[in-house]
Design brief:
Shape: globular
Helix content: over 70%
Order of helices and strands: HHHHHHHH
CATH architecture of the largest domain: Orthogonal Bundle
Number of helices: 8
Radius of gyration: 18 Å
Oligomer: single chain
CATH class of the largest domain: Mainly Alpha
CATH topology of the largest domain: Rna Polymerase Sigma Factor, Chain: A
Distance between the termini: 50 Å
Number of domains: 2
């Protein structure tokens, strides 16, 4: 991959990669760092990544970088930081988007990632498997479970509206 192709990749894919990471971790600063690390990895491997496969490489690298960051953050938390009895409050929603975001946050990490790759980014089951390292049937199962969990959380549309 040439420097011009790399710059074109940044222009074409950086927003999509950022949006994918941000939806998963909900922290703008960390999402920017992960996207920057992802493009740094692409630059280092620019000779071995073809321009035609760069989108798949970027999402795969971003996914794995995000997983590493989440694991690192979990290790850093101490027991004093965890509040065993969080304050209870009534959460009010501003719209359907808030409800969907809340439902997405409640999903396990893997289910959320595969669901977003499928429904938000439009990847095929096979491409999602390549990105996440899962086989195609596992991807289908995780997506199904994520959709069922979201449906159960949201309930019927009449109760939401």
């Amino acid at each position: 991959m040439t420097a011009a192709e790399f710059n074109k990749c940044v222009d074409e894919h950086s927003d999509n990669v950022y949006r994918f990471i941000l939806k998963n971790i909900r922290d703008e600063e960390k999402a920017r760092d992960i996207v920057q690390d992802t493009f740094e990895k692409l630059w280092v491997k620019a000779d071995s990544v073809s321009y035609e496969k760069v989108r798949s490489y970027l999402f795969s690298a971003a996914y794995h970088t995000m997983i590493d960051a989440i694991r690192k953050e979990k290790k850093m938390k101490s027991l004093e930081e965890v509040d065993e009895n969080p304050p209870s409050y009534q959460q009010s929603y501003k719209g359907l988007s808030d409800i969907l975001d809340t439902a997405l946050r409640r999903l396990p990490e893997t289910q959320r990632s595969v669901l977003m790759l499928r429904d938000y980014e439009g990847y095929s089951y096979q491409e999602i498997g390549e990105i996440t390292g899962l086989n195609e049937s596992q991807v289908k199962v995780y997506i199904y479970r994520a959709r069922v969990a979201m449906k159960n959380f949201i309930g019927s549309l009449e109760t939401v509206l």
